[in-house]
Specification:
Blueprint lengths: L1 H20 L2 E3 L5 H6 L4 E6 L4 H18 L4 E6 L4 H6 L7 E5 L5 E3 L6 H12 L4 E3 L4 H5 L4 E6 L5 H14 L4 E5 L2 H7 L5 E6 L5 E4 L5 H11 L4 E4 L4 H5 L5 E6 L2 H17 L5 E6 H4 L15 E6 L4 E4 L8 H12 L21 E2 L5 H5 L5 E7 L4 H18 L7 E7 L14 E5 L8 E2 L6 H11 L20 H8 L5
Parallel strand pairs: 1-3, 2-3, 6-8, 7-8, 11-13, 12-13, 16-18, 17-18
Antiparallel strand pairs: 2-4, 4-5, 7-9, 9-10, 12-14, 14-15, 17-19, 19-20
Helix pairs in contact: 3-5, 11-13
Organism: Trichoderma cornu-damae
Keywords: Disulfide bond, Endoplasmic reticulum, Isomerase, Redox-active center, Repeat, Signal
Family: Belongs to the protein disulfide isomerase family.
Length: 497
């Protein structure tokens, strides 16, 4: 017994030391409000001990807390199993939830990355004013305060330029650090004149200068282009940024870091030529090789290169039997830019006959069937592995039969397409996704969000289709209504990476 007590005492002491060494403060309902009110800026994580994402975040969060300690920026955490009421009071619905507190009355969601460097960078930005006023003694340190910073060199009496820069800084303060210099001598030492903006960065050429007319849109575009590495890296932290950039993305798949580094050097001159027009990035083929299939590449043959026109969702894979060298890739990218390459269309074979009441659509028949301007078309985007899609199938078949045997058989089409094996121009985030393309208005499809009953589908087609087509549904024993489509789809949502 004495031995057990000794072990417990030692373990307890070890836990106390570990807790004492942590720079993340654990909060409870008794300590939360006082802690928030006594600190100007706090990032709080609401977590559950069993949550896998929380466990993955823990070491990154701890590292960020240590890095931010000297800046007096506090990181805290709340165990939502032990403190369920506290988490409920703060609207926590999933784990981990991170929120930025400037007192109890000013709370904003954390929207940064979940790596230590990203958390540190984000919270430093939160701690500073939208624009930090700099002088000859502070500007040098500010240039390297983050991976990307923007410094405006503007005369103090240039009200219009100052207001424009401050407006953009308020908009993008979570993304970049912004500084302002009003001393002409400091601008001259930097080699620029009033008004100018210099974007300093820790990669590529080190800095870029903006000297055009001060306009929020123009500066925003300049910053986005200049802040993107010539050859970056696609991963969970950067994927959404590349997808929202509004320009094509050229992927370089490779299995080793050495290979990715070598290929980056090969394509760098091409990336320089198309900077701001095409983004270039490597991707770890060992971790994310399955993503190659999404841009119509084989998933077992690397290295590989492909261009994804994100805006149009068109894919241009480079021949995987060819070597990736500067000459051939340069020619491929030039031809892509000139519109001389046809996109690769992943499509199942066109059905020889349509069997069953539901019309089977493939990529090669998509325009012919879905965009038939004379017909209302209800289309289900499904995945073969999706359990909700399988559950829907018999009802969807019955719905199709009702219309096929009605006066609207030539005006309404009930269709489906395997969105995993066919390229589709639509944005599909979960399965099943169901849309109605009304006759005469194919540019404005309506996404279905109701219960998955035949009656509700019929009502949806009646309300949103050109022909107001309603069919009579046979009366069946009353059943509990199916969950809303938008809710079920959440369970099957999947990320590209």
């Amino acid at each position: 017994m004495h031995h057990k007590r000794l072990v417990c005492a030692v373990l307890g002491a070890m836990a106390a030391v570990a807790s004492a060494e942590s720079d993340v403060t654990s909060l409870t309902k008794d300590t939360f409000n006082d802690f928030i009110n006594s600190n100007d800026l706090v990032l709080a994580e609401f977590f559950a001990p069993w949550c896998g994402h929380c466990k993955a975040l823990a070491p990154e969060y701890e590292e960020a807390a240590t890095a931010l300690k000297e800046k007096n920026i506090k990181l805290a955490k709340v165990d939502c199993v032990d403190e369920a009421d506290l988490c409920k009071d703060h609207g926590v619905e999933g784990y981990p939830t991170l929120k930025v507190f400037r007192g109890l009355d000013k709370v904003t969601p954390y929207t940064g990355q979940r790596k230590a460097a990203g958390i540190t960078s984000y919270m430093v930005k939160q701690s500073l004013p939208a624009v930090s006023i700099l002088n000859k003694d502070t500007v040098e340190d500010f240039k390297t305060a983050d991976k990307v910073v923007l410094v405006a060199y503007i005369s103090a009496d240039d009200k219009a330029s100052n207001e424009t820069f401050t407006s953009l800084a308020n908009e993008l303060r979570d993304t970049y650090l912004f500084g302002g210099v009003n001393d002409a001598a400091v601008a001259e030492a930097e080699g620029v004149k009033f008004p100018s903006i210099v974007l300093y960065k820790s990669f590529d050429e080190g800095k870029n200068v903006f000297t055009d007319k001060f306009d929020v849109d123009a500066i925003r575009s300049f910053a986005q282009v200049a802040a993107t590495p010539l050859v970056g890296e696609v991963g969970p932290e950067t994927y959404s940024g590349y997808m929202s950039a509004g320009i094509p993305l050229a992927y370089i798949f490779a299995e080793t870091q050495e290979e990715r580094d070598d290929l980056s050097k090969i394509v760098k001159p091409i990336a320089e030529k198309y900077k701001g027009k095409i983004n270039f990035a490597t991707i770890d083929a060992k971790s994310f090789g399955a993503h190659a299939a999404n841009i119509n590449l084989k998933t077992d043959k690397f290295p590989a290169f492909a261009i994804h026109d994100v805006d149009k969702n068109l894919k241009y894979p480079f021949d995987q039997d060819k070597e990736i060298n500067e000459k051939d890739i340069a020619k491929f990218v030039d031809e892509f830019a000139d519109g001389k390459i046809e996109p690769s269309i992943k499509s199942e074979p066109i059905p020889e006959t349509q069997e069953g009441p539901v019309t089977v659509v493939v990529a090669h028949t998509y325009s012919e069937i879905i965009l038939d301007d004379a017909k209302d078309v209800l289309i289900e985007f499904y995945a073969p592995w999706c359990g909700h899609c399988k559950a829907l199938a018999p009802k969807y078949e019955e719905l199709a039969s009702l219309y096929a045997n009605s006066e609207f058989k030539d005006k309404v089409v009930i269709a489906k397409i395997d969105a995993t094996n066919n390229d589709v121009p639509d944005e599909i985030q979960g399965f099943p996704t169901i849309k109605l393309y009304p006759a005469g208005d194919k540019k404005n499809p309506v996404t279905y969000g109701g219960a998955r009953t035949i009656e509700d589908f019929v009502e949806f087609i009646k309300e949103n289709g050109k022909y107001k087509a309603a069919v009579e549904v046979p009366v069946e024993p009353t059943e509990e209504a199916a969950p809303a489509a938008s809710e079920e789809a959440k369970a099957d949502d999947h990320d590209e990476l």
